Amino acid sequence: MPIKIKKGWELPEHRATPEDIYMNRRRFLAAGSGLIAAGALSACDGEDNMIAAQAEQSADPSADLYPVPRNELFTLDRPLTAEEDAITYNNYYEFGSSKSIWRKAQALPIRPWTVTIEGLVERPFEIGIEDLLARMPLEERLYRHRCVEAWAMAVPWSGFALSHLVDLAKPLSSAKYLRFVSFENPEVADGQRASWYPWPYVEGLTVEEARNDLAFVVTGLYGKPVPKQNGAPLRLALPWKYGFKSAKGLVTIEFTDKRPLSFWEELQGSEYGFWANVNPEVPHPRWSQASERLLGTDERVPTQLYNGYGAFVADLYKGMQGERLYM
Ligand code: MTE
């Protein structure tokens, strides 16, 4: 994401589960955790790498869980983005600031993977990814995704409503926000060796936002486990907000009474704020947000308020005064 850093560096642009799925899930659970320790890909180029990356995806121990039933409530106004485009054009600064990080991201070990729920909850706990996947009602949703950089895609995410995780966490009434923290492992993620970034990647939501029907935790993409470059094993999809809010590689969710300071806000608060709701009429300080470029076709289409999801979320922000809701 293009940012201006004070010291003058300028980074480049950039439900009900059908029986077969239930049975697959049981098989998967019986197989136990940590079946495959995902490792770095061997050095090979181009198509070989793509095939290797896809092989790694199907080697993901959760592969048997997919596909999951589609929730038809969420519909698109445009064709799906080609899978190849969505999985090879990414933002994942842990692996560098270019869009071509998908090969490097294969080095991230995603088993074992534990998520910590902490802060203002009845009882803090840790949960392994297999246990979490088994407890959550997995579904597929077709969502638009709008990056603050003005590129956009439309993809079939699999996962579960964030509200289910909030229910599992049992937050205290004093909890007002969720603070999401991504993994930190500079040994495999060389972008994290860049000391000017405030690692780990952090994002935040209000509890009301997190309970909104649209807020989704992603575990799959195109009917398969979500690829590492797209945030495996666990990321957010918040389609009414700019894409940077949808943090990848989540390891901690803290419930807090203080508004979290997110990664990008800490880096450049005048350009990237807490709310970051999509609005075509509020330009980024350095470019227009009036239209967006579709990945794959490069077609430009008008941006929509809340990325077209106002019917789901507009009420969340009614009557809020003095907040920078759209950046
Ligand atoms: N999460 C982490 N941990 N690190 C990142 O750099 N980039 C964000 C978001 N989540 C990012 C992240 C940005 S700017 C965008 S647009 C989306 O991931 C991109 O998701 P995609 O690569 O799956 O399209």
Structural descriptors:
five-stranded mixed β-sheet, 12 strands, binds ligand MTE, seven-stranded mixed β-sheet, Sulfite Oxidase, Chain A, domain 2
Number of helices: 9
Give the uncertain stretches in residue-range form: 6-44
List the secondary-structure elements in sequence, H or E: HHHHEEHEEHEEHEEEEHEEH
CATH superfamily: Oxidoreductase, molybdopterin-binding domain
CATH topology annotation: Sulfite Oxidase, Chain A, domain 2
Quote the distance from N terminus to C terminus: 14 Å
Describe the largest sheet.
7 strands, mixed
Mean pLDDT: 88
Extended strand count: 12
Level of helix content? 10-25%
Structural class: alpha+beta
Shape: globular
Bound small-molecule species: ligand MTE
CATH architecture assignment:
Alpha-Beta Complex
Can you lay out the helices and strands and say which pair or pack?
Elements: H1 19-31, H2 46-59, H3 83-86, H4 102-105, E1 114-119, E2 125-128, H5 129-135, E3 139-146, E4 151-161, H6 162-169, E5 177-182, E6 202-206, H7 207-211, E7 216-221, E8 224-225, E9 235-237, E10 250-256, H8 263-268, E11 291-294, E12 300-302, H9 310-313
The protein binds ligand MTE.
